[in-house]
């Protein structure tokens, strides 16, 4: 799409210049014909004719430059204006003739933007990010059974989240955030999402109920099945999947199977997943199948949140 827009702009600029200087169109046509003649003459090996054609071409180019200057038209005005000069907005770069095409960095950025839209997080992440984290919202009074205060607990969780982001490119990690509602789990998820996106990786943020709706739509071929399938591809392909509010869905064999497929495939692919839930680990293990519980126990760092609902305090 971006390449098409660049080509359309290029064509519009060319026609605008031709209106200002009709002779330009004649020159460009003659240059094109001369270029073809040179190619044919080179194949035939006619040296004398080649020199004559080159002289004609040089004269046309000189006249063209003079005409552009006279009409005050920048010579670069005829070049396509691409958003990305590296790949000319194709999304792929080939470094050698016949070599493999590799994805350009601009393509990944477009995918990042698409994931941003899919997750509906653009507005939220402007406010909920590490820059706006305020430790003062958390109580400093020690909770006896925990042996620490909510503020100390959040300081530890904050450091873990920061470490996750800082080491993301070098270390495969998965996080499971658990605790009652209103303790900052979703906020930390948003902070991680924003930081990872800003670092140039792809993130998809979904609530667990939304994920299972997508799976249902795709499996049972409902009206939005094609859109659901595209988003489920993103679930597996995103560098980070953030699955919020696990346990809020009605759990059954269908949801268990869907959840296992997602977390197991991402483990196999080496793609990080961050999960938040209101359920403590023992209830989480009871609610889901043993094979899901074993993945959580073996491959996820458990992060506990304690304290009072900070949303009320805010």
The first-level CATH class name of the largest domain: Alpha Beta
Instruction: Give me the secondary-structure category.
Output: alpha/beta
Question: Percent range for helical residues?
Answer: 55-70%
Strand runs, count: 7
CATH superfamily of the largest domain: P-loop containing nucleotide triphosphate hydrolases
What is the overall silhouette? elongated
**N-to-C CA distance:** 44 Å
Number of helical runs? 13
**In the residues, how many domains can be counted?**
2
Blueprint of the fold:
Elements: H1 2-20, H2 22-44, H3 47-70, E1 92-94, E2 101-103, H4 105-119, H5 122-127, H6 150-166, E3 175-178, H7 185-198, E4 203-207, H8 208-219, H9 225-237, E5 240-246, H10 253-269, E6 272-277, H11 281-287, H12 290-299, E7 301-304, H13 310-313
Parallel strand pairs: 3-6, 3-7, 4-5, 5-6
Antiparallel strand pairs: 1-2
Helix pairs in contact: 1-2, 2-3, 6-7, 8-9, 10-12
């Amino acid at each position: 799409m971006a390449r098409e827009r660049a080509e359309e702009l290029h064509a519009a600029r060319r026609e605008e210049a031709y209106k200002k200087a009709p002779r330009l169109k004649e020159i460009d046509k003659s240059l094109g014909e001369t270029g073809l003649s040179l190619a044919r003459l080179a194949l035939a090996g006619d040296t004398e004719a080649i020199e004559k054609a080159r002289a004609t071409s040089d004269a046309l180019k000189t006249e063209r430059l003079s005409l552009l200057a006279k009409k005050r038209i920048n010579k670069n005005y005829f070049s396509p204006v691409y958003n990305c000069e590296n790949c000319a907005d194709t999304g792929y770069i080939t470094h050698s003739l016949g070599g493999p095409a590799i994805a350009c960095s601009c393509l990944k950025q477009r995918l990042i933007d698409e994931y941003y839209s899919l997750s509906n997080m653009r507005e939220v992440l402007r406010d909920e990010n590490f820059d706006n984290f305020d430790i003062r919202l958390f109580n400093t009074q020690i909770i006896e059974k925990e042996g620490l205060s909510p503020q100390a607990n959040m300081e530890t969780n904050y450091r873990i989240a920061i470490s996750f982001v800082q080491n993301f490119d070098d270390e495969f990690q998965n996080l499971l955030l658990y605790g009652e509602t209103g303790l900052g789990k979703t906020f930390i998820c948003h902070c991680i999402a924003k930081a990872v996106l800003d670092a140039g990786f792809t993130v998809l943020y979904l609530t667990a109920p939304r994920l299972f709706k997508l799976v249902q739509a795709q499996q049972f071929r409902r009206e939005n099945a094609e859109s659901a399938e595209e988003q489920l591809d993103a679930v597996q392909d995103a560098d980070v999947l953030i699955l919020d509010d696990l346990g809020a869905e009605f759990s059954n064999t269908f949801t268990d199977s869907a959840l296992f497929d997602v977390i197991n495939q991402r483990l196999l692919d080496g793609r990080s997943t961050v999960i938040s839930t209101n359920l403590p680990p023992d209830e989480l293990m009871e609610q889901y199948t043993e094979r899901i519980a074993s993945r959580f126990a073996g491959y996820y760092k458990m992060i506990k949140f304690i304290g009072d609902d900070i949303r009320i305090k805010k």
